[in-house]
């Protein structure tokens, strides 16, 4: 919205409430443009590393120029029938416990709130296992500096406990032995 001397910027903070900010801005000066998408597809199907250092240079340059948030999404896919074990080797946010302005979210299969496995915004990030062969890791922060860092390793694994449980259930229900 724009008046003679006032421009209002309405910003949607991901997975949060609507935030409206009104401030004076000279005519003709542009407001912050739309965020550049940051999507990183990890290609090794059995193990890999993701970190703050994966953030593309153009995303960092955009952040430095406009002060916009960094919002990156890593996609991990392993072979069907396997799950993902994600372990954080390093985890330091610029402002621990400021969960509106810097956090890491981990999702299984989809990036909706129902699929969210964990959200980390403090000073520790736990190990996470996926429910399927697909996992997403999202990093969101208004700060991007040397004080913050995260690095995580992922490994594909076959969940033999689930397979054995399914075989027991099949036998109990009178189903034929089916190799799952």
TrEMBL record:
Record InterPro entries: CUB_dom (IPR000859), Sperma_CUB_dom_sf (IPR035914)
Organism from which the protein derives: Aromia moschata
Keyword check for Disulfide bond: yes
Signal peptide: none
Name of the protein: CUB domain-containing protein
Pfam families linked to this entry: CUB
Lineage summary: Eukaryota, Metazoa, Ecdysozoa, Arthropoda, Hexapoda
Keywords: Disulfide bond, Repeat
Residue span(s) of domain CUB: 38-157
Record carries keyword Cytoplasm: no
